[in-house]
Structures are given as C-alpha cells and as structure tokens.
Give the backbone structure.
Amino acid sequence: MTLLCSDCGAAASDDALFCAVCGGLLAFELGEPRIAGPALRSLLAARRLSNEHRDRSGVWRYRELLPALDPDRIVTLRENDVPLYGGCLGASYAGLDALSYLHLGMNPTGSFKDAGMTVALTHAAQNGARLAVCASTGNTAASMAAYAARAGVKAVVLVPSTGISESKVAQTLDYGATVLGIDGDFDAALATVRGLDPRRVAIVNSVNPYRIEGQKTAAFVLLEQRGWKVPDWFVLPGGNLGNTSAFGKGFREALALGLIDRLPRIAVIQAAGAAPFARLFAEGGEMIPVKAQTTATAIKIGAPASWKKALREVHSSDGTVIAVDDAAIADARAVIGRDGIGCEPASAASLAGVKALVAAGTVQPGDDVVLVLTGHVLKDTAYAASYHSSPARFANAIVHTRDQVDLLARIDELATARAGV
Ligand code: F0G
C-alpha cells in the first residue's frame, strides 16, 4: 500500500499528516492486492471460525487490505464485531418496506471510532509514539483513550468545555486520558491539534489516514453479513466526514477486489444547524464553514476536515447529502429505541434523513436500505432523559399512580392493548 495525497496525488512520507506539496489530506492506495475475489471471500469466511483476536476483530480480519503493520503486535479490543439488525418500526416510520441498521455503537467503547482507533494506535505504538492527541466531540476522545491505554501510550484530548455529552467525558477519564476543555467548539479544537508536529505526537483525528483504513473495514463487515449483496442505499450521519470517506473507500475497494459487483448509493445526513456539506452539495463551490449549532452534539461541526474526500465518494456512488432538523433527529432516535435497539442522537440523523429522502421520492419504498448507527444509546443518557421528561411524552414514559390498585389496572390495560409506537 502506498501513501499519497488525496488531492494532488504526490507521494507522502509515513511521518507526515498532510501533503508537503499542497497541504491536502493523505490516503492509502490499495494497489495490487495479494488476494482477491472468491479466494479472499473464503479466507475471510474461514477466519470467522477462528478464536484468535486478530481474526475475531472486524478490522484485523481484513489485514491483507490494511497498511503493513506487525500483526503480532496489534492493539485490539475485538472491535467491529457488530450486528446488522432489522428495524420494523424504523422502516414504517420512514415509509420503507424494510430497512436494517448496522450498529457500530456495539463497538468496545460504544462508537464507530474504535475501528479506526485500533489501526491508528497500533501504528502509533509500533512507531514508538509516547503521546496520542485528538480533538473531539466526545466519541473520538473515549475511543482514543481506551486504545492508548491498551497500547501504553499517554493520551490527551481537546474537547469543547461545554455542550458535549458528560458520559463521554467521564468515559474518557475512566480510560486514564487527560481531558483539556477548551473555550471554543470542535472546529477550534481541531485547528489547534492540526498545528501540532506529527513527528512529536500521534494525531489520531480522522485526518490520520490510518484511522480511515480501519474505518473502511466496516463496509466489509456490512457486506460480509449480507453475503456480499449490495444495498441500494447506504445512509450515515456526517460531521467531520471521515466516516463518509472511509465507507466510500471501503465500498470502492470491495468492488475493485471483485467482492461486489456495484456500489451502493451513499446518503450523508447532517444536522440542519451544522450542514455546510449539505449546502455545498446542493449549491457547489468550496466549503464555507459555519458556526455549528445542534443538539446532536457529536456532529456539531462547522468546518469538516474531510469534505473533499467525502464529496468524491458521494459523487462516485451517485449519492446525495441532505440536512434534517433537531426535532426530526429527536423523534427518529426515539423510534430506533422502540425497535429495541437505541442509539445516540447523531446516529438517528440517518433515520430522520431516509424518511425525508423517501418523502422527496429520492429513495423508493421498496429500496434495500442500510442505515448506520454510529453510537450507543448510553453515550448520551442526559439527552434521552430530557426527551422523555418533556410534558407531552411524560405520560407515556412514567405511570403516575397513587396506589397499588391503579397501577395494576394500568398494567392490565396495557396487557390487553395492541402493541405499537
Ligand atoms: N456519529 C457520531 C456518534 C459521532 O461521534 C460522529 C463524530 C459522527 C457521527 C460523524 O462522523 O465526523 O466521521 O463525519 N464524532 C467525532 C468525535 C467528531 O470527536 O467523536 P464523521
């Protein structure tokens, strides 16, 4: 695999984070793989029967398709071994015959970040890094902290000092990282981190190409679970847009490797108050950063770093980008909960988005649709508590009763009523 600039194509050195010629983001090019097609499919299927960590990990199982790292010294928590769930209520809510959720919140630290972090920290540790740093709205922080702890590398995270989930900060502290709260938003934190010297500290935001290599394997995990059957639409939330770049790359590589015969169309969903990419997609031109505002705090990002890569992926898949408002995200999140699954707010942008795309006629009711859930329901319990405590929903969430008889009557009533949303 070779490391190139994703904008101008210039060769790059392994200790750089940006192109020395044009400042663009770097990306690995797969080149001529050692194994492809049916032989690769069989190798992957055989590994699913193994008990070795590197085979059970839904990242390292695809190690032939990753940058060359010593497979005997990987930093893994058995990440990306995640389920694909059907979602009946979600489907009828969106106006679809059926849909499924790829739940990346079922990763070791509760978000999709683990798939990238296992590769980024393996690389950092094998390069002798002593300190890993990231800017974060919470999930990158928690994931980096866990993998850095496993690797014996110190971890420092920069987060906005207000407006992110406290559970994520607590989780990050639990893993032993130093948390620096900045007087600014995610974009300001990332600008600071981008100014650090990557030869002195391992910068593990998604501008790090090793992160993208790890995250692209979620595309393989999805396709493998579907017997390599390609969905019509693949829908995910977009913030800094590293994940869109990663999935797009994964699908393209699966096609080049003969594992699939076409690409799914990628739909990226942003929160309306943090939607510079949706505007750019609709109107063209360059990225114009915004001051982000949304209650889906994980995607409260106004200047997405990976927009150029992500735009190429959306276009090459004949995909789309739209924005949905916070109320739509809140309601969609509650529906996903009632499918018995649950997720954090940002993840639910995918269901709110597909509902809007069906209403607009972009997605057809009979289309084969996969939504990505990026974070676990327990990532933001304060948000859920606040949603259920609003007066209109309180009666549904908590039964007020003065005495035992009332309570039993209410339960009896519920037992005879039809189930439903
Ligand atoms: N969903 C969740 C739960 C996230 O935490 C993030 C990003 C996204 C979606 C968007 O992914 O940035 O690759 O487009 N969270 C980052 C963080 C920014 O710091 O945890 P993206």
User: Anything to note?
Assistant: The mean pLDDT is 94.
